[in-house]
Amino acid sequence: MSDLEIVRTVRALRETIAGWRHAGETVGLVPTMGALHMAHMALVDEARKHADRVVASIFVNPTQFGPNEDFSSYPRREAGDIETLRDHGVDLLFAPDVKEMYPAGFETIVDVPNISQGLCGDHRPGHFAGVATIVTKLLLQALPDCAVFGEKDYQQLQVIRRLALDLDIPVDIIGLPTVREADGLAVSSRNANLSPADRAIAPKMHAALKDVADKVQAGEAVSVACAAAHEALAAAGFFPIEYLEVRTADTLMPADQAPAGAPLRALAAAWLGKTRLIDNLPIG
Ligand code: PAF
Asked: Whole-model pTM?
């Protein structure tokens, strides 16, 4: 297993990658905000399937957090993350500081306005512009052959697919199905904040989405299936329920505006105590 190299500047990142390119090797990128867990390692394993070299980035991106969100308290565990990446055979860690990514005078924003609208976009104003901007930078800095993102953040994945297409960024964007606990709960660093009682309730979000997906697949009206699942979530104790909706799988248009036969996705976000959970499932 090769040793993990750690770089903190764009220049050093590019130098190492240029060396690999020179030797004819391909590169896969896994962008993260650290606090790594098994779902991140699934992204690393996927990148390894597609590329000779795997680069992970750790950067807690301030521009994707709203003023009342958890930027300052977001977990930062770099030493442990480095061990995890090393154990997984990652070749290079890019861990820049805020000044490296947003030097004085920085002002360009990447915005993908339609896909960023609705769902999480309505509840986290500016979030997707922050994500789109930092991911564009990471893709252009590393210029990998592929970059891997989890489907758990489904709206984020569609925003990233769109920006790569629109800006002609020659990187294959790979979406990896959500990694789940045995009871269906989507793996997330925020699950650690759930009380034992809320942890027992949390898988009901997956169950509610599965119910919607099965019923819509069987021909039930989207509005009827979503209303029943909304009721089930509320009865289980989720509050507030930010959204539980069916959208088109690629452009995330509301289901009632979907062209006939368009693939659909059921998506939800809701709070249990102080923890915000999101999840989604394909329909059909
Ligand atoms: O999904 C995440 O961890 C982040 O949104 C990402 C893609 C690394 C951008 O900061």
From this structure: 0.97
